[in-house]
Design a protein that fits this description.
alpha/beta, Rossmann fold, 2 domains, seven-stranded parallel beta sheet, 19 helices, 45% helix, globular, Probable eukaryotic initiation factor 4A, initiation factor, protein biosynthesis, RNA helicase activity, hydrolase
């Protein structure tokens, strides 16, 4: 009997794992798979799985879903919500690979595809739907009669990167989907997975950012029906606690093979230092460089390209096809440097990354955790280097406090001042040229997106204000409105 069979997988699925060079389940798979498979109509069990990136979280939900599907092949059987298109592609790939003997029909509901094609796909009742919340909610709103009936017997609902799905603008669409989905018949299991957890996912009493109902409650989960597993603590909490101590809201662990460094760099010479660091790493080193904006990603990418590096980028200014092409180039080692925003910090299956460089320090510790999770995977060694400028000192100290790790200074000879001075002119010329080209190519798109984001934020704020029952117009507001009406009449 194989190790996968010992945790409840059927022989055909265990054999498929073997074909994919998986000899034994990872800790998160060992904890979650038996519980997911053991759920029943009378006692449905919902699961939250927390584990570091690269720990096999996707297989932890894909394998039990496929096994359950094999006994009753209907669609739509499972819906997986994920925050980005790239993650959606990867999740579908895993369902197709693990489920090859079943030949499950899988569908992507993401932007960049004609609505009509996606509606037609839902009419054919795919077994697995992997969706980004914005596109799926759009389909529900515009084509309710064609799309909603497909989900009337949904057996599994998965939130991949659950912390991100329950924070920020994206959570509006997630909550709308939960309210719009037909009632579960006869029952539905909710599975939530992420490398980090926020307060709303660890405490039933916690509310959403705008005071909304707790997302666990919206999912129909009760404390007694939820099990939470964390490979960091190597324990299961059963039943789920109603109150969680402040320090345990986010459990963070790093592999022993990960080195975490910082290097202090004046803000004006970040690009020369990056150039020197990449050259010191050699031609075989694979590096991900994280920046905080899409425009900067393109400027840094083009500057490095002009300096002779095999480099690609991943950010929201690129089309979907460009992003997939650039990701493929990096995976195939045709480019050795990937400059990206945090679009690539979560869940993307990018094997064998030697170094992660934080060109810009992230604003949140959880973002830092997801970034460093791109390296030191599956027992391999890896290195994280934070470029700390005079503006980042308090930020990096706050991150260190959150993750409870003291970064060590990176003492690389190539970054000595006298060596940086020698390449200043070369790098500065490349930066000027890159900035000019990128600004000409993308500035209009950047301004349009900023305007759209501001408009969306304003609409959201207005909607919240209007929805409050106690937001009645006062006497002063009424008089003001009356005067305005009179002026318009005149």
């Amino acid at each position: 009997m194989s190790e996968f069979e010992k945790i409840g997988l059927q022989p055909w699925l265990a054999k498929q794992c073997s074909y994919m060079a998986l000899d034994s389940p990872t800790p998160i798979q060992q904890k979650c798979i038996p519980v997911i498979l053991g759920s029943s109509e009378t006692e449905p069990t919902h699961v939250i799985g927390q584990a570091a990136t690269g720990s096999g979280k996707t297989a932890a939900f894909a394998l039990p879903i496929l096994q359950t599907l094999s006994s009753d092949m209907y669609g739509v059987f499972a819906l997986v919500l994920t925050p980005s298109r790239e993650l959606a592609y990867q999740i579908v790939d895993q369902f197709v690979a693990f489920g090859a003997p079943l030949r499950p029909r899988c569908m992507l509901a993401i932007g960049g595809v004609r609505h009509e094609d996606q509606v037609d796909a839902l009419r054919n009742r795919p077994h697995i739907v992997v969706a980004t919340p914005g596109r799926l909610m759009h389909l529900f709103r515009v084509f309710p009669r064609e799309t909603l009936p497909a989900f009337s017997h949904l057996r599994f609902l998965v939130l991949d990167e659950a912390d991100r799905l329950s924070e920020g603008d994206i959570t509006t669409d997630v909550r709308s989907i939960l309210q719009t989905l037909p009632p579960a018949q006869p029952f539905r299991q909710s599975l939530l997975f992420s490398a980090t957890m926020n307060a709303e996912l660890t405490d039933f009493d916690a509310k959403g950012e705008e005071g909304e109902e707790n997302i666990l409650t919206q999912l129909g989960i009760k404390p007694s029906s939820l099990q939470r597993f964390s490979v960091a603590s190597e324990s299961a909490i059963e039943p789920f606690q109603r109150s969680v101590p402040e320090d345990s809201k986010t459990q963070i662990s790093f592999p022993d093979t990960l080195e975490q460094h910082y290097v202090f760099i004046p803000n004006m010479v970040k690009l020369p230092n990056l150039t020197a660091a990449l050259r010191a790493g050699g031609k075989e080193q694979t590096t991900i460089v994280f920046v905080n904006s899409a425009l900067r990603a393109e400027i840094v990418r083009l500057a490095l390209q002009l300096l002779g590096f095999p480099v690609s980028s991943l950010d929201s200014l690129l089309t979907q096809q460009q992003r997939l092409d650039h990701l493929a180039l990096f995976k195939l080692s045709l480019s050795r440097v990937l400059v990206c925003t945090d679009i690539a910090s979560r869940g993307l299956d990018i094997p064998d990354v030697d170094v992660v460089i934080h060109y810009d320090i992230p604003k949140e510790a959880t973002t830092y955790v997801h970034r460093v999770g791109r390296t030191a995977r599956a027992g391999k060694s890896g290195k994280s280097i934070a470029f700390v400028t005079e503006y980042d000192i308090s930020l990096i100290q706050r991150i260190e406090k959150k993750i409870k790790v003291k970064l060590t200074q990176w003492k690389e000879k190539a970054l000595r001042e006298e060596r940086i001075v020698k390449i200043l002119e070369e790098v500065s010329a490349a930066k000027v040229q890159a900035k000019q080209q990128v600004t000409e190519q993308y500035q209009n798109r950047v301004e349009t997106r900023k305007s759209q984001a501001a408009e969306k934020k304003q609409k959201r704020a207005t909607g919240i204000k209007r929805s409050r029952p106690d937001s009645q117009p006062n006497e002063q507001t009424t008089k003001k409105n009356t005067k305005l009406k009179k002026k318009k009449t005149v």
